[in-house]
Amino acid sequence: MNGELVVVGDRVIAGSQYAGGGKRAIAAGCPAEVQAFTAAMLAEVRWRPDPVFMLDVCESAGQLWLVELNSFSGSWLYGCELPAVVAAASELAGRSSSLQR
After folding, report:
1. If exposure means fewest CB atoms within 10 Å of the residue's CB, which of 23, 43, 76, 89 is most exposed?
2. What is the mean pLDDT of the segment spanning 21-45?
3. Residue 50 and residue 70: Cα distance in Å, rounded?
């Protein structure tokens, strides 16, 4: 079980699986357990590396783990729902732009 998730602020916007059984296996969405693990982590840890970032989760020895945090601009989105990602990033950019005026 694994997942790469797009996070905007405190929300998971989209997710994708990228491996299964030790092999590359791209599939849209993430298991409910990965989503719940990520939501709990985001609720507990308030620090964010950027307004939009990628969060990778994997299962090892029957437990879920945070693998890494990645930049949004340098990550591949695998099978993430692109319209949702574009909409959330555009909304954030619009809010940021209006705050700077």
Report:
1. 23
2. 92
3. 9
